[in-house]
Structures are given as structure tokens and as C-alpha cells.
């Protein structure tokens, strides 16, 4: 038995060495990113408002710098109030590195694995991740979205950006596949549920089952919802899966936060929901971030410094459930998702999910269609 084990270990090591000569299997962590320091806020907002896949503006090149400049002082203040910057880069690096350690064990035939961070609006940008991958001699890469639920304004924007670089010939000779959503994966659901259970402990046992679970996700403009974007459905599916895992013991609602600008956005708004619950006398509440995997201004500023504080002023016993951040259950989940994906693609499965192949019925952005076709061919 031990001889067999040793042979197993040797072949694992040999395979790792062989693939090391052609570079590691890259796992590219796609996300929007956030300014790591206050002076980076302006550039972050400038890139965000310049992204026509997120916010299509008339005369975008002219308007984006003006809007970014006008909004910078307010957002700088929010980042100062949460300690001087977004922790998303710190957490994404930790999640990626720990995930790859697990992946080397779970998928020895594709080892070694190396994670690269590709942010859409903050450094390291997609181009920087690609330069590092090319220097490492990468020939096989997974574009792994770190948004659990798919929206064309988030994951779609990151994939469009990769496609544009590929079309310009800047990606080199890399064979791509995509993990484009995983909002109901049992490991993700388990990690969120465990954090809720931990927060429920803060309430007296006899009142625990009447605590209201208020799931909160970043809202979407109704123009995006109404063109058939799948995000609202997918966030709802995550909430249902978490509630099922919790045995449906608590009353709950899904509400939406962080609307920007005057247009109509998906509701009900989180702030109004907190106020409404207080008015109805339902004063024991847990706020649960469900659409983002690490802390950011929406949790640390909007939920903690605004809504929890306002809830206390209304006499509520209100707490926020922790973000996933360094949760080992979560890191194990993303490693399992990547390992399963590598196994399926190596045995001939398509390079993206079937769901990614479908454009929103109201889509008028040609890049979306070209991007989907390009990834389905492995980025060729
Ligand atoms: C799943 C999460 C997110 C979706 C969906 C989303 C859509 C979306 N966002 C905007 C406009 C802005 N978003 C801004 C910041 C921001 N957005 C998300 C997440 C999602 N956005 C996060 C996590 C953050 C904050 C980053 C951090 O470090 O905390 C901003 C900038 C901040 C501000 O000016 O208020 C804007 C603008 C649109 C238009 C949109 C869908 C089309
Ligand atoms: S906007 Fe959804 S596919 Fe283009
Ligand atoms: Fe946003």
C-alpha cells in the first residue's frame, strides 16, 4: 500500500515538474477591485465611470472624468472612514494563494497552480495580471469570477475586457476557460450560513428564531434588470439556498443597496427596509452581505457606519454578518469549484457554462456576443 502511495506521490511531483516547464495553470481572480489607499480613489472612479459595459454614458470620454472628479471627495471620505482604503486586494490575494495550495492537492494533473489578480478598476489591472502571466510562461488559464452571481455589469464587464485584450493580441498564446458563476455552490452557501449562525449567537436563545435575516446585495439599475440581466434571479437563488441550509428557521427578505444617481434601481432599498422593520416593531435584525466575498465600502461604510448605526438610533438590536474574507470554508469552496471545472474541461466539457452562452434578450452591446464566441473557442 505504502509503495503504491509513494508511486502516486512521485508521479504527482513529476507531473508538476513537467507542467512547470510550460508555466503554471493560472487561476485569474476577476473582480472590480477597490482603491487600496485614499489617493487611488480618483483613478478608481475614473476607470469605473469610463466603463461602457457598466455605465453606458453619452460622450463617455468627456463625461467620465467630470463625474469622477465631482464624486471623488465624497468617496475619499468614505474610504478614510473605513481605515484609509479597500481591503479587497489583501483578501483576494489571500483567497487566491490558499485556494491554489488546495488545488495542487485536489488536481495534481494540472499542478502547479498560481493565482493572478485582475481588477477592472484598481491595480493590479487586467493588463498587469496578463503581463505577469506571460512572464511566467502561462499557456493555460481559468478566468474565475469572484462575483458569486453573474451580471453583465460585473463579471460580463471583466470578460469583455479580457476579450478586448485578446482581440488586440495582447494575451499571447493562452488556452482559456471560464468560471462565470457559482452562487448556489454548497461550499459558498455553507460559508455564508456559518457566518449567519455565528451572528445569531448574539441574540438570546428564546428570541433567536424571530430575528429577521435581511440579505443585502448591491442593486442594479432597472434598465439592466429589464434587458434580462440574470443577477437578480441568481442573488435570489443564493438566498434561497442559504435559507434552506439554515432549515428556514427565520423570517427573511432580500433587499438592495448602493444605488448611485437619479435613475430607477432595483428595490426595496436596504436603508428603507431597516427603517420599515423598526416601524413595524421587528427590531432584531441581521444584515447579510450576499453578493460580494470580502469587505468593501458597502459593508464597512454603508452597512456598518450607516445602517447599523441608524438601526441603533431607532432602538434596534441589529448586527451585520461577517463577510467571507479569510473563511477557510469559503476558500475550500473556491478550490473545489476550480478543481471540478479543471476536471470537466480536461474531459472535453465546454469552456464556459451553458448559461454564459446566452446573451440578455435585450442586449445591444456587440462586444458581449463576440466575447462569448471567443471564450467558447478557448480564447482563440
Ligand atoms: C455584485 C456587486 C455589484 C454590482 C452588481 C454592481 C453594479 C453596478 N455598480 C454601479 C455603480 C457603482 N458601483 C460602485 C462601487 C461598487 N460597486 C460594487 C459592486 C457591484 N456593483 C462594489 C463592491 C463597489 C465598491 C467598491 C469598494 O471598494 O467598496 C461605484 C463607486 C462608488 C460610488 O461612486 O458610489 C459606482 C458609481 C452600477 C452603475 C452598476 C450596474 C450597472
Ligand atoms: S448585456 Fe447581457 S449579454 Fe450583453
Ligand atoms: Fe457598483
Automatic annotation (TrEMBL):
Pathway: Porphyrin-containing compound metabolism; protoheme biosynthesis; protoheme from protoporphyrin-IX: step 1/1. It is found in: Mitochondrion inner membrane. Keywords: Heme biosynthesis, Iron, Lyase, Membrane, Mitochondrion, Mitochondrion inner membrane, Porphyrin biosynthesis, Transit peptide. One of its GO terms (cellular component) is mitochondrial inner membrane. The keyword Transit peptide applies. Its EC number is 4.98.1.1. One of its GO terms (biological process) is heme biosynthetic process. It is an enzyme of class 4 (lyase). Belongs to the ferrochelatase family. PANTHER family: FERROCHELATASE, FERROCHELATASE, MITOCHONDRIAL. This is Ferrochelatase.
Amino acid at each position: 500500500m505504502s509503495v503504491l502511495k509513494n508511486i502516486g506521490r512521485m508521479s504527482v511531483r513529476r507531473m508538476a515538474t513537467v507542467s512547470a516547464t510550460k508555466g503554471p495553470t493560472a487561476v485569474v481572480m476577476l473582480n472590480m477591485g477597490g482603491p487600496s489607499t485614499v489617493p487611488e480613489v480618483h483613478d478608481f472612479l475614473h476607470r469605473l465611470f469610463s466603463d461602457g459595459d457598466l455605465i453606458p454614458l453619452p460622450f463617455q470620454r468627456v463625461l467620465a472624468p467630470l463625474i469622477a472628479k465631482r464624486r471623488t471627495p465624497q468617496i475619499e471620505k468614505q474610504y478614510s472612514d473605513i481605515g484609509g482604503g479597500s481591503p479587497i486586494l489583501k483578501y483576494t490575494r489571500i483567497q487566491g494563494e490558499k485556494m491554489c495550495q488546495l488545488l495542487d492537492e485536489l488536481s495534481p494533473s494540472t499542478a502547479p497552480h498560481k493565482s493572478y489578480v485582475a481588477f477592472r478598476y484598481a491595480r493590479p489591472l487586467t493588463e498587469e495580471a496578463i503581463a505577469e502571466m506571460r512572464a511566467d510562461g502561462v499557456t493555460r488559464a481559468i478566468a474565475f469570477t469572484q462575483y458569486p452571481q453573474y451580471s453583465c455589469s460585473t463579471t460580463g464587464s471583466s470578460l469583455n475586457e479580457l476579450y478586448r485584450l485578446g482581440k488586440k493580441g495582447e494575451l499571447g498564446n493562452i488556452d482559456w476557460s471560464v468560471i462565470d458563476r457559482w452562487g448556489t455552490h454548497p461550499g459558498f452557501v455553507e460559508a455564508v450560513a456559518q457566518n449567519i449562525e455565528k451572528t445569531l449567537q448574539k441574540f438570546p436563545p428564546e428570541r433567536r428564531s424571530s430575528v429577521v435575516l435581511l440579505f443585502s446585495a448591491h442593486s442594479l439599475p432597472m434598465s439592466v434588470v429589464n434587458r434580462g440581466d440574470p443577477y437578480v434571479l441568481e442573488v435570489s437563488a443564493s438566498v434561497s439556498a442559504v435559507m434552506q441550509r439554515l432549515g428556514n428557521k427565520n423570517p427573511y427578505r432580500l433587499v438592495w443597496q448602493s444605488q448611485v444617481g437619479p435613475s430607477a434601481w432595483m428595490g426595496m432599498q436596504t436603508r428603507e427596509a431597516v427603517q420599515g422593520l423598526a416601524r413595524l416593531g421587528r427590531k432584531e435584525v441581521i444584515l447579510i452581505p450576499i453578493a460580494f466575498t470580502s469587505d468593501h465600502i458597502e459593508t464597512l461604510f454603508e452597512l456598518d457606519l450607516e445602517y447599523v448605526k441608524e438601526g441603533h438610533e431607532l432602538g434596534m438590536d441589529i448586527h451585520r454578518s461577517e463577510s467571507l474574507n479569510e473563511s477557510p470554508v469559503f476558500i475550500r469552496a473556491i478550490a473545489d469549484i476550480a478543481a471540478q471545472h479543471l476536471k470537466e474541461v480536461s474531459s472535453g466539457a465546454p469552456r464556459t457554462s451553458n448559461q454564459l452562452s446566452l446573451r440578455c434578450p435585450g442586449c445591444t452591446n456587440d462586444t458581449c456576443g463576440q466575447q462569448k464566441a471567443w471564450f467558447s473557442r478557448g480564447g482563440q
